[in-house]
Here is the input.
Amino acid sequence: MSAKLSQAGYEVLEADSVRAAREYLSSDLDLALVDYRLPDGSGFDLLKEMKAEHPEVPVIMLTAHTSVSHAVSAMSAGAFHYVGKPVDLDELSLLAQKALETTRLRREVRALREERARSAQDLSIVGRSPQMAKVAELVARIASSPGSTVLVTGESGTGKDLIARAIHMQSERAGSPFLNITCSALPGALLESELFGHERGAFTDAKTRKIGLLEHAAGGTVFLDEIGELELGLQAKLLRFLEDKTFRRVGGNTDIRADVRFVAATNVELRDAVKRNSFREDLYYRLAVLMIRLPALREREGDAELLATHFVDRFNQEFGQKVRSIDEGAMQLIRTYPWPGNVRELKNAIERAVLLARGEVLTRRDFDMLASTSIQENSFQLPAGGLDIRDVEKSFVQQALKRTRGNRTRAAKLLGMNRDQIRYRIEHFGLDTTEFDANR
Here is the structure.
């Protein structure tokens, strides 16, 4: 049996007694073949012991004394199968293959359950600000809707992917796949193949048929990040799918239907892209059936401290650290820092601080990079030769427009102005807001 299974490519461990077998119980076993009678005990007792300690490992019982009662007892105790001697080695090999497939599936299910539990913990929307309370309410209401498309907007780093996952996990689609693709990560032809799949021979390197994300995600959710980067030709194909839920693989001539919910995200103003003819108007309105705007972290009063504590707990668990808290000096820095990179920047700062922590309490020294940046940004000194205050005002308006990627409303809010006040200064200084648009 050992030679036959080794020849089939399996790594085989051999034990000639119950005592010797127990030494392997801590190993990463995938399958156990256990004789009913062993020199120092019963294989039946070993079976019960193994199922108690490693329930996911299938056990095949072997015996020269086949009887209905033995078979029933073994199967009742959790045996995968019961084989009589003399053993047919070919039959045993096939049985082992089926048992190993069972092991793989059981472990995949366990890993998926653990991942889902972790995801549910990570997907909690952390925030006590009124803006995030509205977002959480919207997510819950949208998740309960059948499958309308959703458009999530907001600056980079605000957590648009987390919102997409939260919608999926709170919906009836939670048990089906959630697939995430960034539109700017692949050129148009490759992205089309990823989404819709392709037939063999559709293009030079298409040596086999490829199933696309839409088919893999059937019944679930597809998250398209940076949707504004999608090429116009692919926009038309996506629109067709959103309209009638059918598509064709690249090189195919058969319509395929897939029940998929789309959540799209963008950090640019799609209406401006429509005006520039870089984004289809009909696709914009089809995507924007339900919209969620994520506020920047600087707009969320009190949430930076809450998120910081949340990330400390998370990274303590992830890295086995023992950081207990953040002192008031460091928390004051977290409150006042502008966080241009939003939640992503805060998360990275906390991760770095927890990993390099000098003690159990994080202090300003653990956020030295933020402290130096904050000092540079908030220190205003009049040059010895004086200055023209209009140049300072123009510079701040330019910085605000750059930080908000040309969005006048958000730039005005950064400067404590209203929209009319900033519009006057843009015209007065002759500024072109399109030069601040990251999508230009």
The CA atoms of residues 123 and 166 lie 6 Å apart. The mean pLDDT is 85. The chain has four domains: 2-114, 124-295, 298-378, 389-436.
